[in-house]
Structure formats: C-alpha cells, structure tokens
Amino acid sequence: MEKGGRDGIPISIEELNKLKEMADRARRNVIKMQFYDQSIHVGSSLSSIEILTALEMKVIRDSNDPINKDWLILSKGHAAPALYAVLHEKGLIKEEELWKIQDISGLLQGHPETFIPGVDMSTGSLGQGLSFGIGVATGIKISKGTGRVFVIMGDGEQDEGEIWEAMTHAVARNLDNLVAIIEMNGFQLDESTKDVKPKDFLPEVWRAVGWRVFHCDGHDIAGVISTVDEAIKTRKPAVIFADTKRGKGFTPIENTKRQRTVPDVARQFLLNS
Amino acid sequence: MLQGSFSSIREAFGKTLVKLGEKDNDIVVITADVGDSSRASYFKEKFPDRYFNIGISEQDMVNFGAGLSAVGKKPVVVGFAMFLMRAWEQMRNSIGRMNLNVKVFVTHSGYSDSGDGSSHQALEDIALMRVIPNFKVVIPADAAEVERSMPVVLEEKGPLYYRMGRDYSPPITSSLDYKFEIGKAYVIKEGDDLTLIGAGVVLWDALKAAEELEKMGISTAVVNVPTIKPMDQSTIEYYARKTGRIVTVEEHNVIGGVGSAVAETVVKTYPVPMRFVGATTYGRSARSQRELLDYYGITPKNIINSALELIK
Q1: Which of B64, B73, B97 sits opposite A131 (nearest CB)?
Q2: Does B266 have pLDDT greater than 70?
Q3: pLDDT in tens, B77-114
Q4: What does the record give under GO molecular function (chain A) (predicted)?
Q5: What is the tally of structural domains in chain B?
Q6: What is the span of the domain harbouring residue B88?
Q7: How confident is the model at residue A1, as a pLDDT?
Q8: Which domains, ranges and CATH numbers included, belong to chain A?
Q9: B89 belongs to the catalytic site
Q10: Prediction ipTM score
Q11: CA-nearest residue of chain A to B89?
Q12: A139 inside 8 A of chain B by CB
C-alpha cells in the first residue's frame, strides 16, 4: 500500500496548507468547468471539495489489489466534477480532460464511471452506493483483506428507500471497515431538504439503528481527517454527518438550490477572487 | 419423447448450487429472505460463511452482490422473479453498467407461485431483463436442464439472469443427451411443416401439441431456446427456412418475451408467419400452476389452434 493509513498522526500546518491549496485549485477548476459545459452540478460539487480532498490525499490507500486497497464510492454521483478535479490534483486525470467533461470525445462522463482512473464505482442513480460499499467491505473481510470503504452520500439522497435497507444491513454484518459520510448541505434538486422530507432526525435514526455517529464541518479539511480517523477506530459501522454548503466558495450560488450560473458570472468571479 | 417423471425445479437448483459450491470457493449466495422458498438455503447448511440472508431488501441485495463481485467473489443473487423487478434499476445501473460478474437466479416466475396470486406472478421479467446491455438471459426447460446448465452459467463471465419456476417441472430434457452452451438452441423433435419454439416448462405443452399435430399429419419440430439472449440466430433461421411457420410458447407476457425475441431474429434472417402463445394478463390464485396455465390458455390445445391457423 502507498500513503494513507495515518492512524491519527497529527497533520502539520505545512501539509494542511498544501491540502487547502489543492482544494482551492480543485474548487476553481470546478467553477471553470462550467465554461465548457453548462449542465454540470457545480453547487453539489463545491459542497464536496474538502471531503474529497481529505479522503483522496490523506486517507485513501491505493493499490491494484482490490481487497487490500481503500475504496471511495461517490454515491452522490452528480458531484463528479469535484471528484475529477481532486483526482487531477492526485495526478490521475490530465488537466485537458477536465475541460472536455461531458464532451462525447472526452474521458470524463457526467456521472462517475469505473473506466475513469480513480473511480471505484459507477454511480449517478442515487441510493445505491452504500449497498455496493457493504458488498465490497464484506468481500474484503471474508477474503481477509485490509481494505476499507468510504461512501459519500447527500442529504437529499437519504430519501431513497435502499439506504434504509443498507443501513440496517451494515449493522447486521457488524462491518468495521466501512465509513459512510452524509453531506448535509440542506438542498436537493427542487427545494431545500426541509421542504421536501424531514432530514433533521437522521443522526438519531442512524444511531438508534446501531451506527456510531460523528459530526464535522465538511469544509474543514483537518476536521474531516480527524473525524474520519476516529470513525475508523470505532470498530463498528460509522457514519459522519458533515455540515456543508452547497456552492461553497462560489458566492453567486453559495447556499442556494442553484447548481450553476452563466459562464460570464463564473469568469468574473474567478478574476476577482 | 416425454419420458421420465415430474420433479421440482427449485429442488434441482438448491442441490446443484451446493455441488458447485464444493468446487468453487468464490461462489457466495445472497438471498432476500427467501432462502427456504427458493432452496438456496441448502447452500447455507453446507457453507454458512458464504451465505447471506440480507432480509427483505431486493435493491440492497443487488448492489451488495455487485460490491462482492467487485472484489472477485462470484455472487449468486437469489430471489422471487417478481420482487427482483423492484431492483431492476439497480440491476441496470450497477450490475449491467459496470458489467459485473453477478448471476441473478430467480424462482417463482410465471404462474408458478400459483397460490399467492397476481402480486407474485412474474410475467414481465424476460422483457425487462433482456433489454439491459451486458445481461444474458437463460430459462431452463426443466429440472434436468437446471443441473445441466448451472455449471456452465456460473463459469460464464458477466451479468446473467436465470429464470425458474417453483415445483412444477414436467420431464422435457431428462432423456436427451446434449452439452449445454449459452446462446445455443436445442432441437427436441424434428419436423418439416411447422416449428414450435419455446423456453421453460411450457415446452411440455409444445411437445404434447406436436404429438397431436403429427396425428393430424402435420410434421412438427420443437425447439428449446434456453438462452433468450443472446438468441441462437442460426438455428432459428434454419427452422424458419425449413418449415416456413413458427409458433412460440412461453409462460410470460406475449409482449416482449420469448416470442418477441424469436420474432426479432426471424425478421432479420428469414421472415415467416408466426403466432404467439403465452400470457396476456396477471394470474388469479389457484391450487396449482397447471390450473393457471390452463385458465390463461397456455395449453396444447391453443398451441394446436395457432398451428392450424398457419397451416390452413
């Protein structure tokens, strides 16, 4: 295994600053991607930037051996641009590919596909990632591997019934190599999450079902890393409720249900920031 | 023809699964709380560590299987045909899309779960499953063909949907000697005037009909197409050319099922007049599968009538 496997070692200021720079570049690249394709989900992507940066750069241990590597499943697949921007920081995706997102000749699809380097599950249909993650985590355990599985979901995604099936399943299997991360950005496609179906009760339900429940600020890289470290150590299925802002850092859409703006507004924003 | 005794298709499935589990440690069995009903539970008795009852959760089951296959296991996902359809989108978007090595085995298809009524009777699943890219679709004719085909099916790479009924399994292939291959059709009876093509237990009705048609002087071939996708184009074309008329027989809606798949092949290769015998609507409850097949007209008599329409 390469990097990762931190085991709670404190992160240095220098290293943290490097991660923040990476996240900042990834954020700007996501905003820039909408110059090239105006249908990408910018708001949902910007909400995931720090979580993806923390996981990909400091937690995930890469390997070609499926049972001795860590898996990252972006169940909220519409945040694909953020994943691609972070995978570019990791050196797995070339910059020119970012600008060809959703182009028929390009590598990067509108939602993650496993033929893209660094993508562990093809997603895009909400509610499916946790079940898949349980399958991977179980397969790793019965094969006596050391891999761990991280599944990132949205708060709107929690409407899907399959998540109920999966959350009770993971507890029944007592998986300790699985960490779910639920981003609480407060919006789903049409409206704020509270106007569609209640979400506030979620941490209590996950706890009542048998998960160890953690909370963090999903835009604080050091906080995300230390919470993930704690979650891994619990030796039980663990879920992290990460408070995030949709469109974080891109003021024209920040904390609204809007996914994007027009390219001119994005261009002006990048020039001024 | 029509030798041997009636047996149970799900019993054959459960027992064969155990035999295959002995040879291949990577096979894992997952069920949505229907281990006993499907006989998948025989596997649990022998290999408890490789058997997962994940509860009444078909969507979770499909993606759990997908995840296990992603780390090199060979998952056999087992459920009732009708209830796997609530996970159709999971089969499409996870298994099919990633082309994962997951085998979906269903029991209780067609009218086979006779007592449980229309909610449990799957007459749409062939149509739904054959449209998913990467998925193959296999329907064994009887218990003997389950034993013959399962080792081959589990060796095949990629997604596959395997459709079985419950206990009703008249002897169709037990006296025949052939090596099962995916994508191959098998001639059960030769004939020159008309071909009956079908899959599953209703091939029994086709064979009965063929016997009667012979008595009327109509030389009738009967072809078993256990693989609906990919379809054996050359065999279908050969019999279309040879006999010039085809009647299909299936325990599924006549829209989108076996007959449709055969028709799609025939119009591409050698178009001939066809008739379709099968279901058109949901089933009532009944005391047996046979009663429902008779009630909904999947019978030797209707096959004969369809044949005579083409012959006149």
Answers
A1: B64
A2: yes
A3: 999 999 999 999 999 999 999 999 999 999 999 999 99
A4: 2-oxobutyrate synthase activity; 2-oxoglutarate synthase activity; pyruvate synthase activity
A5: 2
A6: 9-163
A7: 42
A8: 14-272 (3.40.50.970)
A9: no
A10: 0.95
A11: A125
A12: yes
Q: Do B139 and B235 fall within a single domain? A: no
Cis peptide before B230 (omega within 30 of 0): yes
B225-248 pLDDT per residue, tens: 999 999 999 999 999 999 999 999
- Out of B54, B68, B73, the one facing A169 most closely (by C-beta) is B54
In angstroms, rounded to a whole number, what is the distance separating the alpha carbons of residues B198 and B246? 10
* Percentage of residues of chain B with pLDDT beyond 70: 99
Q: Which residues of A touch B61 (CB under 8 A)?
A: 131
Residues B211 and B287 placed together within one structural domain of the fold: yes
Q: Is residue B257 part of a domain?
A: yes
Is B100 in the same domain as B18?
yes
Which residues of B sit within 8 Å Cβ distance of A?
28, 49-50, 52, 54-55, 57, 59-73, 75, 89-90, 93-94, 97-98
Q: Identify the closest residue of chain B to A120 by CA–CA distance.
A: B70
Q: Determine how many CB atoms are found less than 10 A away from the CB of residue A229.
A: 15
Q: What is the pLDDT of residue B184?
A: 98
Taking an 8 Å cut-off on Cβ atoms, the answer to whether B94 and A128 are in contact is: yes
- Tell whether B151 and B21 lie within a shared domain: yes
Asked if residue B127 is part of any domain, the answer here is yes
The CATH number of the domain holding residue B129 is 3.40.50.970
Mean pLDDT of chain A, nearest integer: 95
Select the more confidently predicted residue: A9 or A112.
A112
pLDDT at B4: 78
CB contact under 8 A, A128 and B93: yes
Which chain B residues have a beta carbon less than 8 Å from that of A147?
A: 71
Q: Which of B11, B22, B45, B58 is catalytic?
A: B58
Residue B29 lies in a domain: yes
- A270: distance to nearest CA of chain B, Å? 36
What's the pLDDT band for A6 if we cut at 50, 70, 90?
A: low
